[in-house]
Amino acid sequence: MSLATLAIDGPLATLTLNRPEARNALSVELLAALHDRVDELQARCTPCAEQTDSGPHVCIVTGAGKALCAGMDLKAVLGNSDLARRLLLSLAELTYKLRRLPCVTVASVHGPAIGGGCGLVTVCDLAVTFADNKMGFPEVDLGVCPAVVGPWLVRKIGAGRARRVLLSGGLLSGREAEALGIVNHCVATAEDVHPAAMDIATRLASGSAAALRATKNLLNDLDGSNDWDVLEAAANLSADVLNTPETQAMLRAKLQGKSS
User: Fold this and answer.
1) Helices in the chain by DSSP H: which ranges?
2) Which of 9, 66, 133, 247 is spaced 20 to 30 Å from 187 by Cα?
3) Distance CA 166, CA 164 (A)
4) Per the confidence metrics, is the pTM higher than 0.70?
5) Where are the domains of the chain?
6) Coil, helix or strand at residue 8
7) 72-91 pLDDT, tens digit each
8) Residue 29 is among the residues annotated as catalytic for this protein
């Protein structure tokens, strides 16, 4: 069973994180599968000279099971500094690829999106969730620096709001995430999320892929989304903090507390 799946139906694509037993936590293996699927989608979206509107126009990003993504698989990186750095750099590269896809991305956030999972939401062009969902960036509560998601959150909601969200830690409701601009649409229940995301995707897909692609490329240029150096530096900063003895001890205590 693949840890990430890609389904394409004409102008619509759906990218699914498929590790439901772990609430789609971002392991090295899941990230590798996501890289493969996003590379495949990139190839399918890239137009040929004869068919400038060929391939998917819009991609819905979602997760199997009850969560979109519980964030980084912290248990896997305890005591393993090389793996921690590799995972964070892989996540940074994945966000870069997602943002630079020619098609518009719509996050269908039907369940919790935490840490790096909420970072994936901010990378998508549009996002839908429900009022009582749990979202946010609790990294500082765990002694972790949310550097990889920082650049995307600043671009999404502005520097002042991002400063408040990332330094405060904790979680937000879906309603609060909409008020901050982390998501663009908030519906009543989890069951309403995917139909709402599909409505948005279908409407967008009815237009010109070339126009959507050109507009997205322009916006990426304007907001600095094409700057890989910032993301690489952020991933290394996050890894440096994560690999300190203080953070490792805090994480170990937090994770052991959850399992007891």
Assistant:
1) 28-45, 74-77, 81-99, 116-123, 150-157, 159-168, 174-180, 193-205, 209-223, 228-242, 245-259
2) 9
3) 6
4) yes
5) 4-194
6) strand
7) 998 888 889 999 999 999 99
8) no
